[in-house]
Design a protein that fits this description.
three-stranded mixed beta sheet, alpha/beta, nine-stranded mixed beta sheet, Rossmann fold
């Protein structure tokens, strides 16, 4: 089934519209594991789609000098656009006045529906394609005159564990394809912003973990992300392709419903419905608010030099603090959210200074504010 999905239509462009229509449990009594009610991105049963004409190739434009705010209207392609961070990166591009293009193998837009207004969705061009198809990716870059690229397409921890070969094909070969495609178009696309991960670290790394990177990732997913960092380094050293890799840790916020660390957001979604749940891990970690992560990736797409990799400057917190923030925002679930006191296989804290030095301050909210905003958005959805 997975291979069938990988080999689906290579480059179909759509405008999308909404269709009508034994462990410690420190807090309270578990109701059940946190689980998303969203369905996988594998069909189009709840959306309508209609083809749109592709724009003609656009000529190269002069470059701005400041990564923080370009006055030029760019044409930004986001791979993995139907994921949580992808949706928020598209929003950041729209908020900056850019033309936004989403590239994804899937076709379900439930995360876009959470993040974007109908008017904002009308401004986005979605392109259904396969990151493992280099020729198809190149055609997309040219036919849409893309001038900036954010590469987020990847399989996450559980999927890489279940099928390491597929994980390597999507995460590693797909990243090589993206760099190779940009290398051939440096006159128009200055470099690559891409998602690495805190999963490049392992449980034996020190805390705070050095921003220079980890030594022994504990997951297949982490190995693919570490490989991608080395790929970026060599593309700069040998071909002068600039890149900016960002390592998020626990991303939370509207749209985060898949992956090893999605459980806190799923607990927020359950709380918005007045329900309790159990979070399948505990311990300390850094929490990254998805809208702010999207802003960082959009800014990083204007990279022009070097092979930078930076940890995202998230908020350090224990699981007890996360649950307390959820209960403060949704008092009706107090005592009904529990967690398993088993830490993630990564250091509790990461050094994170390089990103804001390069991209400017991100103005991320405090954890309590981010949790409150997330729950309120779920309530409105």
């Amino acid at each position: 089934m997975r291979d069938a999905l990988i080999s689906r239509a290579r480059s179909t462009t759509w405008r999308v519209w909404a269709a009508p229509g034994p462990a410690a449990r420190p807090v309270g009594q578990a109701v059940g594991p946190c689980a998303s009610r969203a369905r996988p991105n594998t069909d189009a049963t709840s959306i309508g789609v209609r083809p749109i004409p592709r724009p003609k190739h656009t000529s190269p434009r002069p470059e701005a000098d400041d990564l923080r705010a370009s006055p030029i209207r760019e044409r930004v392609l986001v791979t993995g656009a139907l994921g949580c961070v992808g949706a928020w990166t598209l929003k950041a591009a729209l908020d900056a006045g850019d033309d936004a293009f989403g590239f994804d193998l899937g076709d379900r837009t439930q995360r876009l529906d959470l993040v974007l207004t109908p008017a904002e969705q009308e401004r986005i061009t979605l392109i259904q394609g396969d990151i493992t198809d280099l020729d198809g990716l190149g055609r997309v870059l040219d036919e849409h005159g893309i001038t900036r690229v954010v590469h987020l397409a990847a399989l996450q921890v559980p999927f890489c564990r279940a099928d390491p070969a597929l994980g390597a094909r999507v995460n590693v070969v797909g990243t090589v394809n993206l760099f190779e495609a940009v290398k051939q178009r440096l006159n128009r696309i200055p470099g690559v912003a891409y998602a690495s991960s805190a999963a490049v670290y392992g449980p034996d790394d020190s805390s705070p973990a050095p921003e220079s990177g980890g030594a022994a990732p504990a997951t297949f997913y982490g190995v693919t992300k570490q490989t991608n960092e080395e790929t970026a380094r060599l593309y700069w050293a040998e071909s002068h392709v600039p890149s900016f890799g960002i390592r998020p840790y626990v991303v939370y916020g509207p749209g985060r419903d898949q992956g090893m660390t999605s459980a806190p957001t799923l607990a927020m979604e359950a709380a918005a419905r007045g329900e309790g749940c159990e979070i399948a891990y505990g311990g300390d970690a850094q929490y990254d608010y998805a809208p702010t992560v999207g802003v960082a990736f959009h800014r990083a797409a204007s990279v022009r030099e070097g092979a930078v990799v930076a940890n995202f400057p998230g908020v350090p917190a224990s699981m007890a603090e996360v649950v307390a923030a959820i209960e403060a925002a949704a008092p009706e679930v107090e005592g009904r959210i529990s967690w398993i006191e088993s830490p993630l296989p990564f250091p509790a804290e990461l050094e994170a200074t390089a990103l804001e030095r390069a991209l400017g301050p991100l103005r991320a909210p405090a954890l309590a504010d981010g949790v409150h905003e997330t729950i309120e958005r779920f309530r409105r959805s």
